[in-house]
Amino acid sequence: MPAPEPPFAPPATWTNRTLPALRRALLAWFDAHRRPMPWRNSRDAYRIWVSEVMLQQTTVAAVIPFFERFLVAFPTVRHLADADEQQVLHLWQGLGYYRRARHLHAAAKRLVADHGDALPDDPAVWAELPGVGRYILGAVMSQAFERKLPIVEANSLRVLARWFASPLDPRAGAGQKWVWAAAAAVLPDARIGDFNQALMELGATVCTPVAPRCDECPVAKWCEARRLGLQATIPPRPKAKIITNVAEVGVVLHDERAVCLFQRRPDAKRWAGMWEVPHGEVAPGETLESAATRVVRELTGFTVALGEEVATVRHGVTRYAITLTGFTARRRSGSFAAGHYTQCREVPAGELADYPMSTSQRQLLAEWRRPGRARRLF
Ligand code: SF4
After folding, report:
1. In the CATH scheme, what is the code of domain 18-228?
2. Which of 33, 155, 163 is the best mutation target for the ligand 1 pocket, counting ligand atoms within 8 Å of the beta carbon and taking the most?
């Protein structure tokens, strides 16, 4: 369990009546303005948990179709626990940050093994699960079980920093400690889950990063940043991410019947358990072609005869802008050496869609399969 926060002091302008009034106003606004979402209107801990995991790093609009498909495939925690990891990754395909799915699956297995079908109303149990950090813990516990636990994410930290005109950066260090203390201090004794959601909803729709709509804000009269005219500078803007360009090559290794797909090691940091064609970075001074043959040899043990360039796929991963150039190739010699990959499987082209893959890999293979292109190979 997280350590207790330092005492939190409200602004000097607030009286004993301010916080209760602010809570009532925010909840009334939430009742009237909340956006419909398929996981709202439910206290089902499983649905809330799945939605909150999907919503990390991903927008509501992007999550909704994935959430609906996931819940059809795995309507209960037991269905998820009993599923094969490949099935889970396949349904996560396109959402990115696949470690979330692997953690969710592992946590479901542990919960069902220890607690059966009923998810426990016990923060200590949840806090020990893989992938459950302080935010997920507060979100699930407050929304499903009315536990008095705070949440802090990108929207609520902005709202809290503005309500109290905090000079600290709430994303790090002392500012982060402060914002968790503030999030705990403002919680009501009832409707805790709704209050947490209202805080996030206000940040997402009214108290936006740029040009907050203070004239429409239900708590404007108690907001310190507004009173001081500091909405534009609180919280301080996050430092711009420095984007690094990376050139990669990927190789579609195939014969007339099948494509070689490889599976990433389970302990790999990224795309663990997913399938892919071998790909890797181009070294300084290296041509794309020599990088392609080297990457295949180093990652798989195969020596290949390179065919033609298939496509260029651009995608971003965290702070990297990756340009992936795809080539076709045929195997010439060597045998599969497990290491970087755990498995090599020859997959008929018509069955590629059955394998969980990252978006860039699917794009590369789709381009390879584009009618007309295959005839030009070799
Ligand atoms: S008054 Fe403005 S700055 Fe303050 S919480 Fe509302 S929208 Fe945000």
Report:
1. 1.10.340.30
2. 163
* Cα–Cα distance for residue pair 261/354, rounded to 1 Å: 12
CATH class of 244-376: alpha beta
- CB 357 near ligand 1, within 6 Å: no
* pLDDT for 375: 40
pLDDT at position 378 = 35
User: What residue's CA is closest to ligand 1, atom 8?
Assistant: 207
Please report, for the chain, the start and end positions of each structural domain, with discontinuous segments joined by +.
18-228, 244-376
The predicted model gives 41-46 an average pLDDT of 91
Distance 218 CA to ligand 1 centre (A): 8
Q: Do domains 18-228 and 244-376 have the same CATH topology?
A: no
pLDDT tens per residue, range 323-372: 999 999 999 999 999 999 999 999 999 999 999 999 999 999 999 988 76
The percent of residues in the chain predicted with pLDDT above 70, rounded, is: 96
- Arithmetic mean of pLDDT, 143-164: 97
Of ligand 1's listed atoms, the one at least distance from the Cα of 219 is 6
Please provide the size of the chain in residues.
378
Q: Are 150 and 195 in contact (CB under 8 A)?
A: no
Return the beta strands (E) in the chain as ranges: 244-253, 258-264, 275-276, 279-281, 303-317, 320-333, 341-348
